[in-house]
């Protein structure tokens, strides 16, 4: 095959492998350096963009960037207001942070993976995944952060006694015979939220990355023969079409992650 790969499986395996560092003996703790670095870079870029717009904001006719940021902030605030009519001083900024950060994670999927591999390989980093949301550790880190916030606000709204009482008495009732079924159901419900939240984002972005790789493989078999030229043209057209469609996916996944996070935290304030 072209581009230095001996087989399609080697090509796909290379692009799906993180740059890892094993901590300690036995390999129990493994740190994905590329995920951490890309997450920090994207976080700083997103925070820097909002900071720059806030510094240069005007009360008159806003510029394009200021208008876009204001529209985004208003959209997120209205979305949070629909699911949580209470005090949004914490939840609205959290939702905005989640939406922007996840969107930027996902947006990296539009970068040509071969370009990324070429650039990082030139500096000695032969395995580098530029899309943090295709790493299960990143999506689970965010989803379990939301989970712990949900538990925190449950304790804050209901107190420790109220939270424990709800675990044993909802939804079937307070009869002692129903305590164990209630507890099991509530534990399953609590754990299902972060697991489904993290898996949904990971699954969609991982699948999208695989589609780009398969289209890239089609382009790699292009040649000056009739069949090769047809394959090259088809790969280019399909890659462009998938990239356009993928823009909708990356925005939708960021929106879903944000809304579900807000809903879970809002539900923590409810009493049963």
General description of the model:
With 272 residues, the protein is mainly α. It has one domain. It contains 8 helices and 2 strands, in the order αββααααααα. The protein has a two-stranded antiparallel sheet with strand order 1-2. Strand 1 and strand 2 form a beta hairpin.
Q: Figure out the total of helices.
A: 8
- Work out the helicity level: over 70%
Strand order of the largest sheet: 1-2
Number-wise, the strands total 2
Q: Write down the secondary-structure element order.
A: HEEHHHHHHH
> What is the CA-CA span between the terminal residues?
61 Å
Helical/strand content category:
mainly alpha
Structurally, the number of domains stands at: 1
Give the tags.
single chain; mainly alpha; 272 residues; two-stranded antiparallel ribbon
Layout of secondary structure:
Elements: H1 8-15, E1 20-23, E2 29-32, H2 33-55, H3 64-83, H4 91-107, H5 113-122, H6 136-169, H7 179-220, H8 226-268
Antiparallel strand pairs: 1-2
């Amino acid at each position: 095959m072209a581009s230095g790969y001996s087989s399609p499986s080697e090509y796909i395996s290379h692009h799906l492998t993180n740059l890892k560092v094993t901590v300690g003996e036995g390999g129990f703790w493994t740190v994905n350096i590329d995920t951490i670095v890309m997450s920090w870079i994207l976080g700083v870029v997103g925070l820097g963009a909002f900071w720059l717009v806030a510094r240069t904001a005007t009360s008159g006719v806003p510029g394009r960037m200021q208008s876009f940021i204001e529209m985004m902030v208003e959209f997120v605030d209205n979305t949070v207001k629909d699911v949580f009519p209470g005090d949004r001083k914490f939840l609205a900024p959290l939702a905005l942070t989640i939406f922007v950060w996840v969107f930027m994670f996902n947006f990296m999927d539009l970068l040509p993976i071969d370009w990324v591999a070429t650039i990082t390989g030139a500096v000695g980093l032969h395995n580098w995944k530029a899309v943090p949301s295709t790493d299960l550790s990143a999506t689970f880190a965010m989803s379990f952060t939301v989970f712990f916030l949900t538990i925190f606000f449950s304790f804050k709204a209901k107190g420790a006694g109220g939270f424990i009482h709800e675990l044993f008495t909802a939804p079937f009732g307070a009869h002692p015979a129903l305590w164990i079924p209630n507890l099991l159901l509530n534990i399953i419900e609590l754990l299902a939220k972060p697991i489904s939240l993290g898996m949904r984002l990971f699954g969609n972005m991982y699948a999208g990355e695989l589609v780009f790789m398969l289209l890239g493989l089609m382009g790699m078999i292009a040649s000056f023969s009739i069949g090769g030229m047809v394959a090259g043209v088809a790969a280019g057209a399909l890659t462009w079409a998938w990239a356009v469609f993928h823009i909708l996916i990356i925005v939708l996944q960021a929106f879903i992650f944000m809304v579900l996070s807000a809903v879970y935290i809002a539900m923590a304030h409810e009493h049963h």
